[in-house]
Structure formats: C-alpha cells, structure tokens
Specification:
The chain has 557 residues and is mostly helical. It has 3 domains: 27-43 and 125-313, Arp2/3 complex 21 kDa subunit ARPC3, CATH 1.10.1760; 60-117, no CATH class; 339-546, Hypothetical protein af1432, CATH 1.10.3210. Helices cover 63% and strands 4% of the residues. The chain is built from 22 helices and 4 strands. It has helices at 2-20, 25-44, 106-117, 124-144, 147-150, 156-179, 194-205, 207-223, 229-242, 253-277, 284-313, 318-324, 330-338, 340-360, 364-373, 400-421, 425-433, 441-450, 469-484, 492-508, 519-538, 544-556, and strands at 66-67, 72-79, 84-91, 96-98. The strands form 2 sheets. Strands 1-4 form a two-stranded antiparallel ribbon. Strands 2-3 form a two-stranded antiparallel sheet. Helix 17 (425-433) crosses helix 19. The longest helix is centred in the middle third of the chain and has 30 residues, at 284-313.
C-alpha cells in the first residue's frame, strides 16, 4: 500500500513538473511560434498541384512552377473530326508540369487536373509525421538554449529573443522556399540573411551560443523541408562565419567589416556548390553576386536592428558599452564640474576594476563603464562626501544617523538616475550593489559613542551583496581606492598588506558570497590592484630637488 502511495506521489510530481515547465511566458511563446511553424510546414508539404489549382487556366501565364511530387499514369481522350482516341499519358516524379512565365496549354492543364485527382485530401499520416517532426525540432531548440549547452541561464528577454529568431528563421525559410525565389536551381539560403540572425545572437548572447545556433538553425530549416543539401551548405558556412566575426569587435563599423567577411564566405560556399553541381561557367557570376549581396545586407541589417534591440531588451552589448565609456557624456561632464573628487575617484576605480577583470577573464568593459557611473548618486549632495570636501566637514554639524541616511541615499539616487539615463540593467545592478549591505562603520561607531543602544541595521547600506564577478570587483576597487588614499607614504608592500585586510573584511561579512569569485581569483584581483596602485603612487614620489624648492618657498613666506 505504501509503495502504491509513493508511486502515485512520484507520478503527480512528474506531471506537475511537466506542466510547470510551460507556465513561463517565454516557453508559452516558443510553443505558439512552433505551432505556427507546424501549420506552415504541413501546409507547404502537400503537392503543388493540390494548392490553388483554380489559379491556373489554359491560355493564361503561370505565376509559378508546378512539379509533380509523384509518378502517375492516366487515360487521356483526344477528339478530332474523325474519331475520339484514348491514350495513356505518363507523368514522372519531379517532372515540371507548369512553367513559371509561360502560357498554360490545354495539355498541361489536363496533366495538372490528373495530378490533383490523386490527392483529393491530405493524408493524415503525413500530418502526424510532420507534427512529430516539429515536436522534435522544438525539443532540440529547447535543449540547445538550456544552461548546460549555453553555459549560463538565459534571462527572460533573452529567451524571448531566441524564440523569435528561431521561429522567424524556420517560418521564413519555408515561406521563401514556397515562393520559389530566383531562377531554376537558385539556393533558397541565398535569399535568407542567415548571417543577420547569427550576428544578433552573437552580439547579445556571445560567440558560443551563436555558434550553436549557427549549426541548429540550418538543420531546422533542412528538416522543415525549406533547404536542400546545397542550401544547407551555404547557410551553414554563412552562420559559422557570422558567429565568429564579431569576436572582440569594438565599434559598430565592425558590423560592416563582418558583412564583407560573410560575403566572402558565402562566395566560397557557392563555388563549392556549383562545382558539386558541375554547373555551367555562366551560372557563376549571378550566383556569386547574390552570395556577396547576402553577406553585405546581413551586416547592414544588423547595424540597423541593433540600436532598437539594445534599448528594447535593455541589454549590455560591447557596442553600447563603448558608447557609454565616452567621458564626454553629459552626466560624466556634470560629475567633473559638480563632484570633481568623486569624478577622479571613479576614474581610478575604473582603472582598477578593468585591470582586475581582464586578469580573471571577466567583462572588463562592463566593469570600467559601471565604475564611471557607480557614484552618480553623489551629484545631488556633493559636500557630504569626503572626496569633495575642502576644509569643513558638514557631518560634524549633524547627527550620525542623519549622516548615514545621506550617505546611503546616494545608492537609491544613483539607481534612479541610471534608470532615467536608460543605462543597461547590468550597469544599474552594479550601481546598486557596489556597497552591498555592509555597515557604514564610521557613523555607526560615532553613534555608539553618543547613544547607549545602537542598532547596526540603521546604518546598513540598502543594496544587495554583489551577484556577479564584475559587481564584486567594482565593490573591491571602490573600497580599495578610497582606503588607500588614507595611507601615508604608500609602498607596494604596505598597499598589498592593506588590501588583504580590506578583502578579508568583505569575506568575513559575507559581501562576496554570491559573486562566484574563487580564492584564486581574489588573489589575482589583489595582485592587479597592487600593480595599478603602486604604479600610480610611484609617479607621485617627491624628488630631492622638489623638496628643496618647497622649503625655499616656505622661507620666502
């Protein structure tokens, strides 16, 4: 009895888990797209003679080719002035019955009607087979977008984007194949900007997911019946090159160069296909033209689609980060004039964070840009932050609790300003996390001296501990740069020892527990910080002549 109950419980859990998978928006959206794809594919797999036979009429010009999908024989009656004769007419599989652009003859119309008679209705076995094929394709793409293959868990917006790209590619290729674009023997894949789809994936998700989809999308189109072997080869080459051409790209003009490289790869693939076909030499120029045009158009379309997609998905891309790294941006110029001390501090934090992220293999550009903007919340109250103070400290005149409130507010104000500026979500996260939920110890200790009981929660920053390596590095760079300023005559050894104490304190208070940083990476970060700071303070050493000049100036006074 107990075994039956356990088995029943397991079955219920399995069913619940199965249906729970379809509760998320991206999954339901993907299913809807694949249902549409199934309808398009199944409807396109029926014989050309079955579809729209009423559009053809003897004596009129045909708007498309019709090819026999099966071989048939039928009796044809021919009437003349003397008698009516019956003959057997044969139609071979693959035989072209109607030619696009030619006038339909009575004989051709008779062949078309005979072929139509062989398919009075769709075979349910065909429908079931292609439905199962679509299910297999859906399972394949669901597996490929999983964290095991991609290497990380995709966000909701990324899942939506991948579903749209996959559905659009398969549905689009099937529809284009049915339209029979171009002359006879024209590969459908030359009319499909495969490079566009793959480059978008590369920009938003990275090279690895792009390479995976460069293999998967042409396979999906091939299984859907949109591509033949030659089209598949061209699409595969185009996608494989597109997935790699944007690696380490620094500006949007790289997309034009990428388009040219894809064009060259397309031309090479076309030459291979034409050689396999043993095509005539006159077939080469037009095919190479379309191959080159496909690559160039893919690059230009990617250039046009990226800006709206970046803002719609609020995503971090290399191109957007490069634009945000411009120190002439209005908000950074405002920092330079309003909070010069904070501005100088942010530049130094950026140098530290960028070097450390490069050394551990994290996103150095994201860390640098986030460092530029991490303290934009200080613009509203510049005089309450020590780096902007000259002589008088305003905190000496107010309660430590109020001081803590003002200090903490720069996080909330920074996040609000970042949202108003339309900064990427990853940059906003780092702005809100660069202090974690640590205690503002200076004012907490000051309050403890003035009051009998003090709750440390009243002096805690309102953020979350860093949840990415880049965020953790910016936090460490921020506290390191600010703290090292207090050292007298800093040397490399003194700086290294001080940084180790700062790191140990963050680890002890759990500020790095969610960042996935390893101890080896923390050592690498520490070494990077020491190298940058030692080089920076070395340039500020006073030389003997400089000291003598300063003493003489004091005597003159």
């Amino acid at each position: 009895m107990k075994e039956k109950i356990k088995l029943s419980t397991k079955i219920k859990k399995s069913i619940s888990a199965f249906f729970g998978y379809f509760k998320s928006g991206p999954d339901l959206f993907s299913i809807a797209l694949f249902i549409i794809a199934a309808v398009v594919i199944i409807s396109s797999q029926s014989s050309e003679a079955i579809r729209d036979i009423g559009n053809f009429e003897a004596g009129k010009v045909a708007d498309r080719d019709i090819t026999a999908s099966i071989a048939i024989s039928y009796l044809s009656e021919e009437t003349n002035e003397q008698a009516t004769t019956t003959t057997v007419r044969n139609i071979e599989k693959g035989q072209r019955i109607i030619r696009k652009g030619f006038i339909v003859t009575e004989s051709e119309m008779e062949d078309l009607k005979a072929l139509y008679a062989q398919f009075p209705k769709k075979d349910p076995r065909n429908i079931i087979g292609f439905s199962l094929l679509i299910l297999l394709l859906y399972s394949l793409f669901s597996a490929l977008r999983g964290s095991i293959i991609i290497g990380r868990t995709l966000t909701t917006s990324e899942k939506y984007m991948l579903a749209v790209i996959t559905g659009s590619y398969i549905i689009g290729t099937v529809l284009l194949n049915n339209l029979s674009p171009g002359p006879e023997g024209f590969p459908v894949s030359l009319a499909v900007p495969t490079g566009l789809f793959i480059m978008i994936i590369s920009v938003f998700l990275g090279t690895r997911p792009a390479m995976i989809m460069a293999l998967a999308l042409p396979i999906g189109a091939y299984f859907a019946g949109a591509f033949d072997t030659h089209s598949y080869i061209i699409a595969l080459v185009s996608g494989a090159v597109a997935s790699n051409v944007l690696h380490n790209a620094q500006n949007r003009m790289s997309l034009i160069k990428a388009g040219l490289l894809i064009a060259a790869a397309n031309c090479f693939a076309v030459v291979v296909v034409l050689l396999i076909r043993q095509a005539h030499i006159m077939d080469y120029p037009p095919m190479l033209f379309w191959a080159a045009l496909n690559g160039i158009v893919s690059g230009m379309l990617t250039l046009g689609f990226l800006p709206p997609l970046e803002h719609a998905l609020n995503a971090v891309t290399t191109f957007r980060l490069m634009e945000l790294s411009d120190l002439n941006a209005p908000i950074l110029r405002k920092m330079f004039t309003t909070v010069p001390g904070t501005y100088s501090h942010s530049l130094m934090v950026a140098n530290l964070a960028e070097q450390a992220c490069q050394d551990i293999g994290a996103n150095a550009l994201l860390a640098r840009v986030s460092s530029y903007y991490h303290d934009i919340g200080k613009i509203d109250n510049p005089d309450y932050f020590v780096e902007n103070q000259t002589e008088h400290n305003k905190h000496d005149d107010i309660n430590p609790r109020l001081s803590a409130t003002i200090i903490r507010s720069h996080l909330k104000l920074g996040v609000e300003k970042a949202h108003n500026l339309g900064l990427p979500k990853d940059v906003i996260s780092i702005i809100g996390e660069h202090h974690g939920n640590s205690v503002i110890s200076w004012f907490y200790n000051k309050a403890a001296k003035q009051e009998e009981t003090v709750d440390s929660e009243d002096f805690v920053y309102p953020g979350n501990p860093p949840r990415s390596k880049e965020s953790a590095v910016v936090m460490l760079a921020d506290i390191t740069e600010a703290a090292v300023r207090t050292l007298e005559k800093p040397t490399a050894g003194k700086i290294e020892k001080f940084i180790k104490q700062l790191f140990d304190s963050k680890i002890e208070h759990g500020q790095l527990s969610e960042s996935d940083l390893s101890f080896r990476e923390l050592e690498t970060i520490k070494t990077a910080f020491v190298k940058v700071l030692a080089g920076y303070y070395h340039t500020r050493i006073e030389y003997p002549n400089q000291k003598n000049d300063e003493k003489e100036k004091e005597k003159d006074k």
